[in-house]
Amino acid sequence: MTEARSSVVIEELCKRFDGPDGEPFAAVNGISLTIEPGTLTAFVGPDGAGKTTLMRMMAGLLQPDSGSLHVLGIDLNEDPQAVQNRISYMPQRFGLYEDLSVQENLDLYADLHGVPQDVRQERFARLLHMTDLARFTDRPAGKLSGGMKQKLGLACTLVRVPDLLLLDEPSVGVDPLSRRDLWEIIEQLIEDEGLSVIVSTTYMDEAGRCDHVFVLNRGTLLAEGTPDALRRRAHGLTYMVTPRDGVPARDLQARLIDAPDLVVDAVPAGGQVHFIRQPESDETRLKDLLSDCEPQRREEELEDAFMLLLHQHDAPDEDATTPPPLASQDVAGPAAEHGDGPVIFVRDLVRRFGDFTAVANTSFDVQRGEIFGLLGPNGAGKTTTFRMLCGLLPASSGELQVAGVNLRTARSAARARIGYVAQKFALYSNLSVYENLDFFGGAYGLRGSKRRKRVDEIIQQFDLDPSAQSGNLPLGYKQRLAMAAGLLHEPEILFLDEPTSGIDPLARRAFWRTITALSQAGVTVVVTTHFMEEAEYCDRIAIQDAGRLLAIGTPRQVREESGLDGGHMNEAFIAIVEKARAEEGQAREAA
Amino acid sequence: MESVIANIAQIVALCRKEIIALLKDPANRVILIGPALIQSMLFGYAATFDLKQVPYAVLDQSHSAASTKFLAKLDGTGIFQREATLTNANQIAHVIEEGRVLMAVSIPADFAERLASNRQAPVQVILDGRNSTTAGAAAGYINSVTAGFNRERGAAAPVTVVRRAWFNPNLDSRWQIMPAMVATLSMLQTLLLAALSVAREREQGTFDQLLVTPLTPLQILVGKAVPSVLVGVLQSTIVLLIVRFWFEIPMAGSLWLFYLGLFGFTGASVGIGMSISALSLNMQQAMLYTFLVIMPFTLLSGLITPVRNMPEVLQILTYANPLRFGVDLVRRVYLEGAGLFDVAHDFVPLVVVAALTLPLAAWLFRHRLA
Fold first, then answer.
1. Which of A525, B184, B254, B318 has its CA 20 to 30 Å from the CA of residue B334?
2. CA end-to-end span of chain A, whole Å?
3. Are residues A218 and A97 in the same domain?
């Protein structure tokens, strides 16, 4: 009988939490929805949309403040245990026991779920085969790569066949290859076992594979429907335009994004700019804006519809979490010009931790004024490379020059010429904005009235509130403060470590708008990211995998090297990594 | 010269940041003053070896005028309090085991007879030896009461001892303990503060941001050590004021020398704390290590038990313990009025510990990898 019922029915569900500033905020604010059994359903939305809160309430791990919630026909308020007996839930960070082997983890979860011994062997064999972990059954879970851990987490979740499977952002922080594998496993399970699956994600391509999509933002449901139905919302508004020769796509993209009354959203893609125009935008003004470059229609994608929905939702009230982008003339460039030649010079860089080689024989240059991107999955060695460039980690061997200074001999002098923005907010949370900037000004050797002047200047440029306590700032402003601190001493090079992880798409646009402005002012920018599409903002990119540098060049060159001209950066990345891994495999067989 | 000023200005910026960060948190502000205040009051009243009350039991089998007189003398001291009057010897074990009394006085049946015939009259005293310190003190009291009893009976002792204790005329153990608390109480917090200073930044990710600035490890070290030392000396000052003005223990020595000693001692403590901090990857580790060292530091400092009584190997090991020399310094300067020449030897191990641990911490800043 359960087959006939809806698997999830939610009515007017609310959940409030206390924010960091002590003010309560609604993580889930009056959501009503129904999910049909036997379907693959996606919750998409930026971070803070309420996806995880919703998932945890459906799994009975969190008590709603108000509203009703039925899962598999059972009221969760009355009998959460009955629901939990029939569902499987995989949280964002699955609780693997890092010291136990792959097999022991599986055994443990089978014991916890009371899976009978006779079913186990067949089930394990199938899961290990699907996840391609059969070779690693003796390896401790802690020694697996990020992607493999996630697959093992999925396998442990599926030691029994649930009536409903909840996956909370299963692909977060996972490299594109593992992400693809993970989805193949999920789709195969649905086909073979007729599972009902609810998955939350920030990736639109993943949402596009689902039967039904719910778009969430800041605790409310913006839209729902099949991917095709949602996509059609952007119908007729999507265009692409090619910038004139010699103009970076990101400059044109920046201009488009600065005109929000004409353009909803714009991103650089494959040397062109993809944009969504406002439904009632003025034709002639749009033409002026494009400075006679001829826009062409392009087919709408789910991403376009999603951006349109987010903009429509965020537009009416001033969104405090996403700061407005900075215009180029506002941003100070480096203090003085410092001649020509590469500003970063890396030759045969190696870093070993014990017998593990995190970075192997890496060589590259970064030219002055470039935006240089280091791309790769987690564990590819990009953070290690990055930390060596910033002087946070000594190299095992190789040559490393930053801003014309050898990092091995004159680290303090090199550090004075670079700015660094960490992935996690790394300023002092209990100090005010002014106190933080004042301290870093002092640490960089600015004194007296010069320091006060510079701090005031940068507070104005970045539109910050000097008396606000840093730890309570919204995420977008925190990042802005971190960038202000990194730029206080007018460095030649700005290093940004995963600046866009964990921030929503609108904030990401604003962030890149600021980077474009910095680049126009002559600052060299080195940035790491695991969002492949962000490579399009860079002048040149380097792709790393398992410590090795696989490709380097302009985004177009890298795409051509992959043999997939015009494709998505994600696919180009997968092609390059697969080719390199195959070659390595052949070399190993030959040896 | 310009570069020296620039160098110092950077350190000052770091010190200022540390102090602002410390004072901004209301919980921190309380911790800076509260524990030192409360603990010094607490220990001043509670931590004492002086035996003010001795509950005892009596088994008087003599039932004579002489035995009554002897017992009246005991009761008359105000220290001995009769908790039980026993009727046979079998009851003694019971009252002592229970902990109701600290000792039992047993007067034999022939007590009066022996006294009358001028023979020796033994009185048995059974002590609870589970706490040897109090048992010893109680035995001492009863000896002096017995001596008084003998004197009154005209049984003159051939030798009499006249005691005169220097530096602490009444041998008040509060005098012995409280000046040492000036060093001991501040040590836990100084260690903890220093141990958390880098570990907190590592845990919250701010340490990387600090390391990418042109600040050298030495500058970071000084910038972080100075606020910790200042806090340590401030706490010592709070305890000092309480010792001097609340408990009214007179200070014999020079205040300057006293503070010189405190700075030396706090510097060495901060050195150990910073090394712990640079070695730890997070705050939990830092706290664990701190509590691991604080206990042996306190017990093996000579605060309660003299270092001279320890096995030789341990005595040598205590040279690494700043508290040993800190306690010695403050006690001698405070109670005895020792001059710089008298306590100079205490500074040597303190300076050596600081000179080893501080550079070690600075080196670890960059070489301890997560």
1. B318
2. 60
3. yes
